[in-house]
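quick one before i forget lol
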Amino acid sequence: MRWTGSLFLVALISGPVTAALPQVKVLIGRSLKDVVVHGTDLRQTIPAKKLYRQFQGRQTVNFNCRVGTRVSLPTKPLLIASVTSPTGLVGWEEKRFRGELQLVAGPQAAREGCDLVNLIPMDAYISSLLAKEMRADWPLEALKAQAVVARSYALSKMHPTPGGGPWHLESSEKNQVSGNFHDTTARTDQAARETEGLVLTDSAKRPVEGFFHSKCGGHTLRPDQVWSGSVDGYRGVDCPFCHKHGKKKWDDTVSRVKFTTLLNRTLKRYQNKAITLKPEALTFVGDTPSQSELRFYHGNDLYVVRKSWLRNLAGREVFPSHHFRVSDTGNSLRVIGEGFGHGVGMCQLGAFELAKRGYSYQAILQHYFPGLKVSRIW
């Protein structure tokens, strides 16, 4: 295979980013065939040729990432080119990004194109995120609480892992949704600046991964109740603050056959039980939204499955949150719930209400993370 442009793959991206130099690598574009970067007085580096170029005034730089058929693809992520500007802003599409834009090739983008990564100062990243994961016009103390939690999550992803990609996290719901320079405001910049270096830590002052969600529906969950692993210091807490914000409840009907298929998949995936449940043989035990597990009989046999398992397999369209109950209506099952998101950590709409009531960001974080502390690590 061959690259149809003049760029060759060379510089291996490796090495951790430390808290002393908080720069975050954020994936903002995946498997791109053509990349057009624009800006003022652009500075371009192409490691393959040890080439450094500087452009005067407003310019665009075009990268052809289309793959031919006669070049061996790299087995590890490689840096193709990077572009910066002394203005601090580099453009891609209709967006402007702080920091540096990097084009990366490797197995994850193989035969498809290049991945585009934004290397950005931590607090610039946090400011752009606040406008996406919350809203820039929310109370300042809610934005500050979000800044600390999001910074904690980002920091947890900044340590290299075996087989990891050349970025720390994606700008997506898989990790955290961040924006670009035009999404930031004076308020989001202020929230990031006034919480600079602050993260959630455990009793040994070790940084802890921060989680948040839109609306818990009345009670938050621990990580081990939703995912496979636990995180020290997390506790579920009552949250009577989010009820009057956002959609009050959701209500859906699932056919008995479809729900039985979901239960079969769940038992096989999470309990390694290769059985075939029959829709007509199911009897569901009385349920409440606060229960994290669903109980049902198949004949005389009792089964217990986590509601988080059902949501992981069926998706948010059927189960917008883990806070739901299931009632049997005969040929179908009625799923009634509250909240939106996985329910772990900080409830954003709860934080919004607490900030409106005059709570500081420290008090908000203390409520949702009673087993953790807020510590400055840089």
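fyi The radius of gyration is 24 Å.
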